[in-house]
């Protein structure tokens, strides 16, 4: 990352930190929390035992719904955590740490909720239990901030309201490094009953919504130097455009889409307008020449 981009990110982080604090203080009767996807942050299990998080109260969502594991470190490196930020000046360093990580990952969101940490963690933990068509039980990783907007968009308005009824407000940093919010309407009594069951049509919509991130993950694994030339928000927008353009050429396999992305990154998106591009992409995709590490 260039010095210029680092400077812009530092400025954006400072602005988000100020904006987040201004929103949190609007809920003086609520406690302030961060929801953390530890799998995205290296050594988070160790970080919560060091400054600036050492003095914070925290709990794994998995431990909250399985009390028998509460005194163990099983899965600590990959579990979602709820972290109490405290309030006022004492929260400043913890908030700054969380904002910085939110700018670099999709691992952090913040909540203002009147619930004590154990009860909030239990309710959040119960929402990780989901069922797909065919009665297949799955872990719903909504604590990844790329996932929850998709989940809320496919639920009925009533189910979405119940799902997010655990807080008065819920914020996250989007792909373009903007502070955004989920709609919340806190209820004292939780009407959510796990697991959350997705119909086949809802499952299909979630798969379609997640597909650009699937493509992007492949690009980062095989062509990270190329895709890293784009900013975080630009990467996802680029992949969505290329999926549409590739499908317009009637090229639908993951290998063909990845090949189109690599060609566009190397030669420019206008190169895809070449009339022979379909044959060229099919040839490269067939032998994976463009998508191997």
Protein model, in words:
With 293 residues, the chain is α+β, with helices and mostly antiparallel strands. It has two domains: 3-127 and 166-187, no CATH class; 205-287, no CATH class. Helix content is 47%, strand content 14%. The protein contains twelve helices and nine strands. It has a six-stranded antiparallel beta sheet, with helices on both faces. A three-stranded mixed beta sheet has the order 6-5-9, with no helix packed on it. Helix 6 runs antiparallel to helix 7, helix 8 (200-222) crosses helix 10 (232-248) and helix 11 packs across helix 12 (277-287). The longest helix has 23 residues, at 200-222. The two termini are 21 Å apart. Mean pLDDT is 90; it is low at 289-293.
Quick overview:
This protein is of the alpha+beta class and 293 residues long.
Order of helices and strands: HEHEHEHEHEEHHEEEHHHHH
Strands side by side in the biggest sheet: 2-3-1-4-7-8
What is the average of the pLDDT values? Answer: 90
Helix content: 40-55%
In angstroms, what separates the terminal alpha carbons?
21 Å
How would a textbook summarize the main sheet?
6 strands, antiparallel
Number of helices: 12
Number of strands: 9
**Tell me, what's the shape?**
globular
Percentage of β-strand residues:
5-15%
Number of domains: 2
Structural class: alpha+beta
Protein name: DUF4123 domain-containing protein
Pfam families: DUF4123 (PF13503)
Domain DUF4123: 32-158
């Amino acid at each position: 990352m260039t010095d210029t981009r680092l400077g812009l990110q530092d400025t954006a982080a400072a602005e988000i930190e100020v904006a987040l604090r201004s929103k949190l203080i609007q809920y003086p009767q609520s406690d302030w929390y961060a929801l953390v996807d530890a799998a995205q942050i290296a050594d988070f299990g160790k970080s919560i035992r060091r400054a600036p998080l050492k003095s914070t109260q925290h709990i794994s969502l998995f431990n909250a719904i399985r009390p028998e594991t509460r005194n163990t470190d099983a899965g600590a490196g990959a579990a979602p955590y709820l972290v109490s930020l405290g309030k006022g000046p004492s929260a400043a360093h913890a908030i700054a740490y969380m904002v910085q990580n939110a700018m670099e990952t999709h691992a952090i969101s913040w909540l203002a909720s009147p619930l004590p940490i154990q009860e909030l963690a239990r309710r959040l933990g119960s929402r990780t239990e989901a069922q797909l068509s065919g009665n297949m039980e799955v872990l719903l990783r909504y604590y990844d901030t790329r996932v929850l907007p998709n989940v809320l968009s496919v639920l009925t308005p009533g189910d979405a309201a119940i799902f997010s009824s655990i807080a008065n407000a819920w914020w996250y940093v989007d792909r373009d490094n903007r502070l955004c919010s989920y709609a919340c309407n806190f209820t004292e009594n939780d009407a959510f009953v796990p697991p959350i069951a997705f119909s086949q049509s809802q499952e299909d919509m979630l798969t379609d919504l997640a597909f650009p991130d699937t493509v992007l993950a492949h690009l980062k694994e095989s062509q990270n130097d190329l895709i890293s030339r784009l900013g975080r928000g630009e990467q996802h927008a680029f992949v969505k455009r290329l999926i549409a353009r590739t499908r317009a050429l009637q090229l639908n396999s993951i290998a063909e889409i990845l090949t189109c992305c690599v060609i566009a990154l190397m030669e420019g998106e206008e190169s895809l307008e070449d009339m022979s591009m379909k044959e060229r992409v099919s040839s490269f995709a067939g032998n994976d020449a463009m998508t191997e590490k």
